[in-house]
Amino acid sequence: MKKRVLALLMTAAMVSTMLTACGGSGSTSTDTTTPAADETTPAAETEAATQAPEDIDYGTGEIMVWVAENVQDFTEDQIAAFQEANPQFAGYTVTVQPVGEGDAANNMLTDVAGGADIYGFAQDQLARLISAGAIAPVTGDYATFVNEQNDAGAAAAATVGDTVYAFPITSDNGYFLYYDSSVVTDPTSLDAIIADCEAANKGFYMEINSGWYQPAFFFGAGCTLTYEADAEGNFTSCNTDYASENGLAALKAMIALHKSPAFTNGSDLSKATNPGAIVDGTWDAGVAQEKFGDNYACAKLPSFTVDGKTYPLGGFGGFKLIGVKPQEDANKYQVCLAMAQFLSNEETQLARYEEAGWGPSNVAAQQSDAVKADEALSALAEQLANTIPQGQYPNDYWSLATSLGDSIIAGDYDNASDDDLMKVLEEFQATCESYAQ
């Protein structure tokens, strides 16, 4: 309750700022530039991207909003403040329902017409939503707002090709390093971390048999693994170069890691025994503080060295976005766009952080004292600069990555030559490519 009251007070105190989009004083969050109409832009969407002056009647109607359950009350409060400050939009009855990001995307894909007008979703669902016609482009100054107000990773996650499709609201789904500062003396080097953990009889935890964590090595070494899909969601092409010198370096680094007596395959800190360091995410920040106590520390992922060359660990980044369903009524569409932008702006993101701990994607919000004091979010923000947004991957990819990691952990490649390891990578790459044929 205390956090909810704080969020409301922030809203009341900053409401004039929250209504400012990309323009100067006196403009509202609905000021936008008219995009060039083309074959893919419905008339309602083109019209809704024009300015939304305060002195016209936007009519009445109903708007359905889907958000995660833990921010339902918060979102209701924010929308109430938005409509109070924007009486031209007050004729709309807004219902906020608790539908999580994963379920929201699946529900929209199943029934676009019956789905929410505004909904939160995870960035890896964007291509599917576009293919299903379940999300409208974000144009004009709204697109400028997305690109200028959010960090590069979040803006990229909301964009396909040259078109922006959503408003980012978080940059907090990724992994970085938690460590015991009394054990780890140099968190920038994987070799040094392993040496420190071995010396202290502590464990280093990383889940290398996971398609989510494993790319930290491959992407960090400079490899690529992405997929393209058609309008029906079928995978049409695979862009990968794992079977390369860079891929070989990544594979050799994982083999070397598994050989260390300090290594344990895992990413759940609550199940870790005697940890010195772990690759994990913000969801375990509380557990990490409890485990490490006064020695609790965080950092971006370290670099690893293979055959005299050093690479930074990379991987996937995840973001939460807000999408707007295509509307035939231009007035309702304008209200939805303005509301979605409001729910994604600096002040709302800060209030949401205070309420629920969601890490902001807004660059100004990231520089707030409260967010900067959050060690886990600060470490993740640094790490996200070395990641790519997770897109869509075939289900079989995740099983394949697990199989590769399991073979490493089992020691199947401990004595393999570089030529033999390259054959492993060639088979892995060919299998990945087969999923898009």
Topology (elements, then pairings):
Layout: H1 2-18, H2 43-48, E1 61-67, H3 72-85, E2 92-98, H4 101-110, E3 118-122, H5 126-131, H6 140-149, H7 152-157, E4 159-160, E5 163-164, E6 167-168, E7 176-180, H8 190-199, E8 203-205, H9 215-220, E9 225-229, E10 235-240, H10 245-259, E11 263-264, E12 275-280, H11 285-292, E13 296-299, E14 303-306, E15 309-312, E16 316-317, E17 320-324, H12 330-344, H13 346-356, H14 363-366, H15 369-372, H16 375-384, E18 388-389, H17 395-409, H18 418-434
Parallel strand pairs: 1-2, 1-3, 8-11, 8-12, 16-18
Antiparallel strand pairs: 3-17, 4-5, 6-17, 7-12, 7-13, 9-10, 14-15
Notes on the protein architecture:
The protein is of the alpha/beta class. The protein has two domains: 2-172 and 319-361, Periplasmic binding protein-like II (D-Maltodextrin-Binding Protein, domain 2), CATH 3.40.190; 176-316 and 391-434, D-Maltodextrin-Binding Protein, domain 2 (3-Layer(aba) Sandwich). Helices cover 42% and strands 17% of the residues. It has 18 helices and 18 strands. The protein has helices at residues 2-18, 43-48, 72-85, 101-110, 126-131, 140-149, 152-157, 190-199, 215-220, 245-259, 285-292, 330-344, 346-356, 363-366, 369-372, 375-384, 395-409, 418-434; strands at 61-67, 92-98, 118-122, 159-160, 163-164, 167-168, 176-180, 203-205, 225-229, 235-240, 263-264, 275-280, 296-299, 303-306, 309-312, 316-317, 320-324, 388-389. It has a five-stranded mixed beta sheet with strand order 2-1-3-17-6. A five-stranded mixed beta sheet has the order 11-8-12-7-13, sandwiched between helices. Strand 4 and strand 5 (163-164) form a beta hairpin. Helix 1 (2-18) runs parallel beside helix 3 (72-85), helix 1 (2-18) packs antiparallel against helix 13 and helix 10 (245-259) crosses helix 18. It is globular. The N and C termini lie far apart (53 Å). Residues 1-51 have low confidence and may be disordered.
